[in-house]
Amino acid sequence: MAMDIAGRKLFVKALLEEGVDTVFGYPGGMVTDILDELYKHEEIELVLPRHEQGLIHEAEGYARATGKTGVCIVTSGPGATNIITGLADAHYDSIPLVCITGQVPLNLIGNDAFQEVDVVGMTRSITKYGVTVRDRKDLGRILKMAFYIARTGRPGPVLIDLPKDIQTAAGPGEYPADVSIRGYKPNESVHIGQLKKGYKLLKSARKPLFLIGGGINISKANDKLLALVEKTHIPVVTTVMGKGAIPTSHPCYVGNSGMHGRYAANMAVGECDVLFSIGTRFNDRITGDLNEFAPKAQIVHVDVDTASISRNVVVDVPIVADANLALEKLLEWAEPQNTDEWMEQIREWNQQNPLEMRRDRGMTPQMILEKINQQFPEAIIVTDVGQHQMWATQYIELNENKQFITSGGLGTMGFGFPAAIGAKIGCPQKPVVCISGDGGMQMNIQELATAMAQQANVIVCIFNNYYLGMVRQMQQLFYGKRYEATCLRRNKGCPKDCKGPNPGCPPYEPDFVKLAQSYGAWGVRVTKEEEIVPALEEAKQCKTPALIEFMIATEELVLPMVKGGNPMTEMILK
Length: 574
Fold this sequence. Notes:
six-stranded parallel sheet, alpha/beta, 20 strands
């Protein structure tokens, strides 16, 4: 019979049993006991961020880069409410996290005590599971459940709310080896009949198309997908989260589809006769007008999450399965298909409207991204959210030596820089390049201090166009150039009806280069194409974080673009 031990001791024992080596934690009154226990264990590194939102995005970046479960510890009240955005982000992008929030002692819950919030209630719709531990003897089982739920099936964030008195109370010292949960049975098989039906459709198709989502990257099924594509010669389009599922240089890869997808990719979805999709939720950014989505196609949908199938797009053949298992079976049956005519049609679309920005008006985002491709044959590329993100999804080249991390479902500005720090902490040997905008960078810029403290020498490329560019683009195209609340240089002295940059504009604040230097990091500003490569080469040599501010034209647009709610074949091209 094991000795009774304090809850805090069992908590650390659980982390060690689960193989946790890194914890992202921010102190506060209701988690001091846990942190005090962690102090005694050098085998777990505690990363101290500068803000809890930075903390949870760091944990997400760490989880995405390593494939492990990210672990967060924050205190009650504001500590807990500050991670809500990250929980939602991880929920939509299927990132496994176990988040521990401190909570006031049981006898104070419901009394509006100091730093008390009902964080389990607040986050019910954006966590896979959330619970307040109300009995010390349940602690081991609940922690085991948390890790199991977070990483199985469709991964996601789990929140465990831990009252202060549970942390100090004595109770059983065992940490269970496994767990059985009524009502949670992640699918670990594949319905062969349904898969056969789906493959039969695919085989008889004249214009077959694979639509691949983030599920392939999450389940690390990339090699199997590549093998299937090479056996069948069927073209592939990806979602933003699916990018990198097969190497972007592959002859069968068409590009991203969706709101800012490649012309040929959106046309292919519009014209295909069988759409075989794996690991995507068919979010509105992919489908546009649902009545006009893949109108000529029979749709096969493989997804590990039952709830994602036929929720937005009603499909002809639903298949609940992990991508790995489904692909393994498909590989047994796969045979070459004659897709020559279909591929020729796709090539023609590509020639009609290639993905290309003008090269005669100074430095463009495309030039910067092409140089990043050349300078970093292997790297983890992390983006923030906005125009720079969409340009990155268009122009970044990916293969088995590169990984792409971005905020897809929630579109969280402020995600990129902390996620890059987390990725670097998880993979210290790999170069990590963060592509951010001048807007999103300022949402978690305090994490420069965390990067310095962790000696995480990430390379940050800020695309500075003086504006919140994605909304500015909508204002230009659909709102008569009324640039309300999107100019980041605007101040009290500016005219009311400004139509864009002019010689009288005030200077931009902050000076990013000086700001980087004030943290002890390295910074440089790049204004011309010939300065791109020297800046990247110097940044690669830095032992500290490196910040490169690329000054790009305000009027650069992300094209193609589909107006929200329109059919995906109605693209704004020029």
